[in-house]
Amino acid sequence: MLPYGRQSIDEGDIEAVADVLRGDWLTTGPAVGAFERALEGWAGAPCVSVTSGTAALHTAYAAAGIGPGDEVVTSPMTFVATASTAAMLGARIVFADIDEESVNLDPAAAEAATTARTRVIAAVDYAGRPADHPALREVADRAGALLMADAAHSLGSTLGGRPVGSLADVTTFSFFPTKNATTGEGGAVASTSPALLERARRFRCIGLVRDPAEQRYPDEGGWHQEVHEFGLNYRLPDLLCALGTRQLGRLADFKARRAALVARYGELLAGVPGLRLPAAARGADPMWHLYAVRILDGRRREVFDRMRAAGIGVQVNYIPVHWHPVFADLGYRRGLCPRAEAFYAEQLSLPLYPGLSRSDQDRVCDALLGILG
């Protein structure tokens, strides 16, 4: 089965992990700091590494102080964790519709969804295309809310020349194998706010306070540590950070290869009846994470099944979050975000990853053209 996305691992990546295995530190060692510094170069802001993209979202919301009574405005066109991690902290999720062209959170819809209880507006950079963060910044400022970016798809992207990790108050990344760079499992939180980043750092380390200057009882002894606020063990180990640092060194090549594949898809599939290609990312230099086409005329299920039967691992990204039973049981109903729901009904992700060969891409397009007839 040809996958829709996969990791790109070379011998240098393997050797970087082996070097850690030969050393003294498997976790909480020097490879963690090296990875976070390398990531800052791409994110444009200091970073704290964590164990997954979901952990990054949970950590970011916790660092922002989200809790019961707060509201988080976000897009339904994302993986469920963008919303569920805030809901687990007690927040009420308010879904706002997407922009038809970019598939990102529509600033006008986000503004209409804000209330006096809005604490966070969480945008999602769908498929690697940055959301309209300048417009969303104005919405967040008027609402007195923090602007958050779920950049799981967009590490390596820029908007107006600025890297995605510098556009919002806090940004989260994912390093799952299908993402733009991988640590196997992993994520990170980026922010230009030292206070928010310190809260994130403590949260990912069980809330431990080890600095005597910040402890309530600093004279207990050299072993002493305290917990002032609850946290979790979300520490990313040195083994995975070593892989991540090596992957970040290859990220520019990954970006160029993804861009070439996207351009070639555009050439091979231009003008095909029953097919709508993704719009260009005006004003942005995206790291294309997904090649998300729309299958028209109610044929998405048929095309999905027939492509899978042909050994081509197409995917659907994503089920609108408010459709999941866990949100339906809370009272959310279908029809809440009609543009996102219409997009979902037609969306199909074609294979896209740096190792995708021209012959495999030809195979994808030939199969799709044969089905659409």
Automatic annotation (TrEMBL):
Listed cofactors: pyridoxal 5'-phosphate
Gene3D superfamilies, sorted: Aspartate Aminotransferase, domain 1 (3.90.1150.10), Type I PLP-dependent aspartate aminotransferase-like (Major domain) (3.40.640.10)
SUPFAM superfamilies xref list: PLP-dependent transferases (SSF53383)
Signal peptide (from-to): none
InterPro entries, alphabetized: DegT/StrS_aminotransferase, PyrdxlP-dep_Trfase, PyrdxlP-dep_Trfase_major, PyrdxlP-dep_Trfase_small
UniProt keyword annotations, A-Z: Pyridoxal phosphate
Membership in a protein family: Belongs to the DegT/DnrJ/EryC1 family.
Name of the protein in its database record: UDP-4-amino-4, 6-dideoxy-N-acetyl-beta-L-altrosami ne transaminase
The organism's taxonomic lineage, starting at the top: Bacteria, Bacillati, Actinomycetota, Actinomycetes, Streptosporangiales
Gene: pseC
